[in-house]
Amino acid sequence: MKVVTDIQPLRDQIKAWRMQGLSIAFVPTMGNLHDGHLALVKAAHQHADKVVVSIFINPMQFGLSEDIDNYPKTHEQDKAKLVNENTDLLFLPSSEVIYPKGYTETTFVEVPHISNLYCGKSRPGHFRGVATVVCKLFNLVQPDVACFGSKDYQQLQIIQTMVDDLSMPVKIVPVEIIREKSGLAMSSRNGYLTPEERQIAPQLYKNLQWLAEQIKTNKEYSALCQQTAERINQAGLTTDYISICHAYTLAEATPEDKKVVILASAFCGKARLIDNIPVDL
Ligand code: PAF
Fold first, then answer.
1. Does residue 154 line the site of ligand 1, with CB under 6 A?
2. Is residue 3 within 8 Å of residue 36, measured between CB atoms?
3. What's the mean pLDDT in 41-66?
4. What is the pLDDT averaged over residues 236-257?
5. Which of 63, 87, 150, 160 is at a distance of 20 to 30 A from 127, taking alpha carbons?
6. What is the domain range of residue 273?
7. Residue 55 Ramachandran class (φ > 0 left, ψ -120 to 50 alpha, else beta)
8. Which long-range CB contacts under 8 A does 111-114 form with residues at least 24 apart?
9. Is residue 181 part of a domain?
10. Which residues make Cβ contacts (< 8 Å) with residue 35, sequence separation at least 6?
11. First-residue to last-residue Cα distance in the chain
């Protein structure tokens, strides 16, 4: 696996592959890799000749109250995992490489409306940071395909909207959520859970499954969401939001919508868990 930290060697390698007629799949990450990320790398291999992964803890997507300095950095373990998955190139830039003028002084990309819903409400500016860095990384790597986890459903829709709105020549491939045996969606944030919290964290998914069953026969969406939030809270979590949305626009679903997604977030101790279940009605 080639490891590059700067833009020019990255561009040189991409150009060399292009001249050989090879296609490129890209997996952007913030590191601290778990099986969910490795599933993205595996999916990337299905779609192109060469696989590029980036690890960049993007300061622009962290809020002022969020502690970027404590975000786990596990570069050596991450590299070993990526070598094991036959990754062709790891792009590991510093903040200065990505934001030479500083991240508060740079041009940004903002996808309107859907960036301000759900997780965007609790994390103002977060999705601007995500869209900006993903746009920048796409410009650097120029992939044919980019793989994103479906766990971050809102992020996925925001990136797909950015790609559509700005006519970016990248195919976005959503990859299914990888869950622990308990049903808990894999996430770097699970590392913040104490053994006791790990026991109750799976209640988020369990209750979303309950809700997914209910909406097949009951269209009182608002009351059902309220009831689900109460169930989640009774289990020892603190619901941040729970919503039944149109699967593409993420607008609140109407009883006529056929493709919906249940989006939810809940605090388990310090960790803010997110999860979702798409439902075809
Ligand atoms: O999902 C993530 O890990 C990040 O939001 C991403 C897409 C790598 C952008 O920093």
1. no
2. no
3. 96
4. 96
5. 87
6. 188-280
7. beta
8. 111/158, 111/161, 111/162, 111/165, 114/154, 114/157, 114/158, 114/161, 114/249, 114/250
9. no
10. 178, 186
11. 44
Residue at 182 is within a domain: no
For 33, 127, 275, 277, the CA distances from 262, given in Å and listed in that order, are 26, 19, 8, 5
Write the CATH number for 31: 3.40.50.620
| Same-domain check for residues 57 and 156 | yes
276: β partners = 263
- Indicate whether residue 133 lines ligand 1 (CB < 6 A): yes
Q: Which residues contact 28 (CB under 8 A, 6 or more apart)?
A: 53, 54, 56, 133, 134, 137, 146, 148
Q: Are 115 and 24 part of one and the same domain?
A: yes
How far apart are the CA of 88 and the centre of ligand 1, in A?
A: 20
Banded model confidence at residue 64, pLDDT cuts 50, 70, 90:
confident
Q: What's the structural domain count of the chain? A: 2
Ligand 1 midpoint to CA 253 (Å): 27
Is 75 designated active site? no
Residues 21 and 93 in one domain: yes
Give the pLDDT mean for 246-257.
95
